[in-house]
Amino acid sequence: MNKKRTGFYYHPSCLEHDTGHGHPERPARLTAIMEHLKSSGLLEKLDVYAPEPIALETIALVHPKSYIDYVARSCKDELTLWDSDTVVSKNSFLAARLAVGAIIAAVDKVSAGQWQNAFCAVRPPGHHAEVEQAMGFCLFNNVAIAAEWLRRNTRAERVLIIDWDVHHGNGTQNIFYDRGDVFYFSAHQWPLYPGTGRTEEAGRGAGLNATRNLLVPPLTSEEKYLERFCAATQEIFATFQPDFTLISAGFDAHREDPLAQLQLTENGFAALTDHVLGWAQRYCENRVVSVLEGGYNLNALAHSVAAHVECMLAATSRT
């Protein structure tokens, strides 16, 4: 087994998803992350791989072929505005396939025991993408496809998705809302885009009580956020007892982020990471894969990702 047990996926073609001048979800996000990880010495400690574009059949685990074809056709030479937030261009379809390819490759390696945990530095993000609708900068729902892949390939019986992006992951919630084998937990600022994720949204049918939303008011202190997040996740791990954990790792709850008003710092994200990894060690045999979602202040994003990845590396040395 490789001694470096934290995997890391990145592909430079994800930079070619052009969203136009002034768009917050821009290629510079990944550039800032990679430059800081390299200058800090963290990158050389990771198992760094470039993903392959995922087969369309794997995307079809969540999204129908008609929608996948629509995304492919829409990615033309010019910028195409799908809604007020979501833009595609000629290389967006490839970037989206690489993003899904990264998380699938990561969950494959982690579930097979080749890595203990992994982080995927990819774009476009995914947690707002509905089954047949792109929105909120997202084309395909990366983390939902990974959860479904784990279940379909019998790599996990109970998958926990923890979403700490500052915006609610409406797409991920809706995809698993009727399911009891995938638990979706979101901690998000309220009120804020997209306006979903109320406390009473708790699942339906076989999925009743397998969805939990933690609403966090604007300007909530880091201390209070951590207190509420840790209490909720501790209870979820103990009751759901997952055997694989996925993290929709948005870093836009940072106090310097321009799109929200929460008060986390990179130290706060490190605390979130350590807390989740601690419970994953107990219930999941340390099987955790994290995928980048939001985070729009470049300096805050880069430092927060570094803190997150450093905790993942540290966890491998404790086992």
Which terms would index this structure?
single chain, 319 residues, alpha/beta, Arginase, Chain A, 8-stranded parallel sheet, two-stranded antiparallel sheet, 9 helices, 38% helix, globular
Strand-helix topology:
Elements: E1 6-9, H1 28-39, E2 47-49, H2 56-59, H3 65-74, E3 80-81, E4 87-88, H4 92-111, E5 117-120, H5 142-152, E6 159-163, H6 170-175, E7 182-189, E8 211-216, H7 222-240, E9 244-249, H8 266-283, E10 288-292, H9 298-317
Parallel strand pairs: 1-2, 1-5, 5-10, 6-7, 6-9, 7-8, 9-10
Antiparallel strand pairs: 3-4
Helix pairs in contact: 1-9, 4-5, 7-8, 8-9
Characterise this structure.
- Strand 9, helix 8 (266-283) and strand 10 (288-292) form a beta-alpha-beta unit.
- The chain has helices at residues 28-39, 56-59, 65-74, 92-111, 142-152, 170-175, 222-240, 266-283, 298-317, and strands at 6-9, 47-49, 80-81, 87-88, 117-120, 159-163, 182-189, 211-216, 244-249, 288-292.
- It has a single domain, classed as Histone deacetylase domain (Arginase, Chain A, 3-Layer(aba) Sandwich), CATH 3.40.800.20.
- The strands form 2 sheets. It has an 8-stranded parallel sheet with strand order 2-1-5-10-9-6-7-8, sandwiched between helices. Strands 3-4 form a two-stranded antiparallel sheet.
- The longest helix has 20 residues, at 92-111.
- 38% of the residues lie in helices and 14% in strands.
